[in-house]
Amino acid sequence: MELITNLREFAHWRRHCRSRVHFVPTMGGLHGGHHHLIGRASRPTPPDRSRPEDSPLVVVSVFVNPLQFGSGEDFQAYPRDLQSDVSLASQAGAAVLLAPATDQLLPGHRGGDLFGVRVPERLAGGLCGRSRPGHFDGVATILARLISVVRPDRLFLGEKDWQQLVVVRNMVEALAIPLVVEGCSTVRDPDGLATSTRNLYLNSAERNRALALPRVLSKAQSLHAAGSRSAEDLVGITRDRLEEAGLSVDYVELVDPCSLRPVPEA
Ligand code: PAF
């Protein structure tokens, strides 16, 4: 695997690359969830499934994107360990790890002189966006830049960040970017919590409390499977159980998975 930190060097690699390129963007702190994404991105996809020699090359980017952190969030504290990222990406089968400097990827950022993508309120204003204003504009802006640098055939994102996945799918369609966005299922640690860089911040008491999330969500799934359909009931029960477990709840909503609009029934 090659580690490339310079965009001009990457452009050279990309010009000479004759394979399909599959792209896994990350902010580093690579873990089992990223391993799964890279593994999935390494698999040949139609129409070349029958010709294993046409396996795609996987580019993984590592860039802690200042645009998607709000004031008071963990931009400075976010884990940065390039050596460990290199070793995980290479074990998982990536061909290139692209780790550009901020001034190369976001020239003008420090002076506030930046072209950016603005995500419509209907997608970015609710759910996680309600407590993180500007976050999805930051994600969309950096991904638009990374996509134009990497020029991938397919982009792989985790379903764990569902709102982000929907925002990116909508951006790709609205800006007519010629690539396929693939959502990959959430990877969980053995105790059931989603594998996530930020979950490493939790001490053991916090982690125990956080385990209410997968437990209560799967209970809501069982209620739904048993015939409970009303958003009011499902949301109410879920919120109550999370609060009973000692969690302070930002939101519980039942929304359409594509439009993110609230729905009255599941
Ligand atoms: O999901 C992430 O790690 C980030 O939001 C992404 C997609 C790499 C953009 O910075």
Task: Provide key terms for this protein.
binds pantoate, alpha/beta, 6-stranded parallel beta sheet, 11 helices, 266 residues
Task: Summarize the structure in short.
The chain is built from eleven helices and six strands.
Would you kindly provide a written description of the structure presented here, covering whatever features stand out?
With 266 residues, the chain is an alpha/beta fold. The protein is 41% helix and 11% strand. It is built from eleven helices and six strands. Strands 1-4-3-2-5-6 form a six-stranded parallel sheet, sandwiched between helices. Helix 2 crosses helix 3 (82-92), helix 7 crosses helix 8 and helix 10 (212-225) runs antiparallel to helix 11. The radius of gyration is 20 Å and the shape is globular. The structure holds pantoate. Pantoate (PAF) binds next to strand 2 and helix 7.
